[in-house]
Structures are given as C-alpha cells and as structure tokens.
Write a structure and sequence with these properties.
alpha/beta, Rossmann fold, binds S-adenosylmethionine, 28% helix
C-alpha cells in the first residue's frame, strides 16, 4: 500500500460505474470533497456538495464549469460545529456518496439519506463492512491506530471506531441493507486500492 497515505485523488466515477452508468443523468456528488467524480472524466450535469466551505471554494476555482454547493451540516470529523439541515432544491437522477456515511453514525446517515431520497432517483453510497478485516487494518495503518478492535467490530451489526478526531462506522451488510431498504454490492477493485476498501449500498 505504499503511496496510499498521500494518495487522495482517485477515480470515484469508475468505482460507481461498477454498478450503474452515468451518461445523460444528472448527478449529485454528496460529500464531493475535491471533486474526484469529475476529475478524471467530465460530466455534463454534475453538482458537488460538501460541508467544508474551503473545499467548495477550491472546487469552484478549479472547476468553474460545475456547480458546487456548501451547507453547514454536522459531521463529527469534518464539521463538528455544523448545525444546518440538508435542504435540496433540485431533483437528481443519481446521488453518489463515496466515503461520506463511513464517517456518520447510523442515525445521522438514516436521516440524511431520507432527505436525499426525496430528491434523488437512486442513491449509491459506500460503507465499511464488518466482514472486511483488510479494510479495517488499512484504516488503522492510515491513521496510525493499533488494529486491535476487529473482534468487536466483526461481532456487531453497527460499530463506531471513534477517537477524539475521527469516526469510522462499520456495518453488517445485510443489517444495513435491510434498515435502509437497499441492496449491497462488493467492489472489484483490488484491496490495496482506496476503491477496493468500501462496499456499495444501492438505494
Ligand atoms: C473521506 S471524504 C470523501 C470525499 C469524496 N467523496 C471522495 O471520495 O473523494 C468525505 C467528505 O464528505 C464530506 N462530508 C461529510 N459529512 C457530510 C455531510 N453530512 N454532508 C455533505 N458532505 C459531508 C466531508 O467534508 C469530506 O469532504
């Protein structure tokens, strides 16, 4: 996994193309960060949304052809003082969320997803599975944590790996799919690729 610690650019669109195609569809990239969805291939009808104002500003400068929206939403890791409710004005054919709900509690995720569902035809979101020990160990390696929680993680339907700075949520695949009324999918990307570490829930 050498190089992965600094590797923050990866083709998010290619990850989701394992499960759907985007041509001709309006796309909401929820938790877009630095716009990895459009960084490798342009897309006609794309909106990126994030709770980090500086990130949204950078994206607007680097990709003036796309629309980026900021809202001051809460996230323990990324925006702990945020208190604005998500309020989507437009409809989208597809919403993608790569590695966003991995950093929310189940209750937070459920409430946000309910709102996304009102405006988005389909939602593709990624999560960490409690069956995937390699990904857990990769998280530990990435953040210099001792990988000593796997027994706990793998025996719970939902487990929060929480430090004073970070939160990662691990789910039992079937439990999550049932709770959110979706279908879970494995990824075909190799384990040592960022995109090989998270499974996808299609709602
Ligand atoms: C691990 S990064 C992943 C970014 C991007 N999806 C990618 O794969 O390159 C998580 C991003 O989600 C954003 N985020 C977290 N919670 C959010 C929320 N409730 N609403 C919108 N964005 C959120 C963070 O600010 C951060 O930019």
């Amino acid at each position: 996994m050498s190089g992965l610690k600094n590797y923050l650019e990866y083709d998010v669109r290619a990850y989701f193309e394992q499960f759907t195609q985007f041509e001709g569809k309006s796309v909401l990239d929820f938790g877009c960060h630095r716009a990895n969805f459009v960084r490798f291939k342009p897309h006609g009808n794309y909106v990126g949304m994030d709770i980090k104002q500086d990130t949204i500003n950078k994206n607007k400068f680097e990709f003036p052809q796309y629309k980026f929206e900021y809202y001051n939403g809460y996230n323990y890791m990324y925006n702990p003082t945020g208190d604005e409710e998500l309020n989507l004005k437009n409809h989208y054919d597809v919403c993608v969320a790569y590695s966003v709900f991995t950093h929310h509690t189940f209750e937070e995720a459920r409430d946000i997803i309910k709102k996304l569902k009102e405006k988005c035809g389909e939602i593709y979101l990624t999560y960490f599975s409690n069956k995937d020990k390699f990904s857990y160990e990769a998280v530990c390696w990435f953040r210099d944590l001792q990988p000593n929680m796997w027994e706990e993680i793998s025996s719970h339907e939902v487990f929060y790996l929480k430090t004073n700075k970070w939160l990662w949520t691990f789910y039992d695949d079937d439990w999550l799919a049932e709770k959110l009324n979706g279908k879970w999918k494995t990824t075909s990307f190799p384990k040592n690729d960022v995109r090989g570490m998270q499974r996808c829930l299609v709602i």
